[in-house]
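Give me the fold.
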Amino acid sequence: MWNEVKDNVLVKGFSGTIGRSLTFRQIGGETFVSKYQRPPTTVTTEKAVAARTKFGRATAYARIAVKNPELKSMYQAVVKGGQRAFNLAMMDALHAPVVESILADSYHGQIGDPITIRATDDFKVVGVVVSIYNQAGNLVEQGNAVNQENNVYWLYNTGHENIELTGSKISAIATDLPGNSTSLSINVS
């Protein structure tokens, strides 16, 4: 348990350990003290390394985001209580968007057929790319969907004819502000 040291000129700015009894640490320009913190003795697993790496990338993104006035104002606009734009940016970087559904009932392989994608994120989906592959797995077309409602529904109107409709695959990739992406694919019957 860390306790903040206030108005003590002897330890202000101090960090490190004294005689295996006290550990001092600097957090946000403030000095904190706790009982001696032993170095970890457990073996680090691949899962722990992956989590640490993901957390490090999220922290790096949040630092960049709050230095960018446009991004910072987007995050700042939705802060609640004691939150900060930095915290929201970090949480956004930790959570990828989700492609919930691809609605292709009106897709008949003709030019102009609509395909609707439902994609959500904890903050904001910034783009959805739709790809259509024929039965042989060859790319028929690919393009950007257009946002329709509350940054949840995205519309893609086809631009090429697909004469091999049965067995085709439609794929949608949603991307959020930090660059996380997730995909979903459906088969056309």
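The first helix runs from residue 46 to 67.
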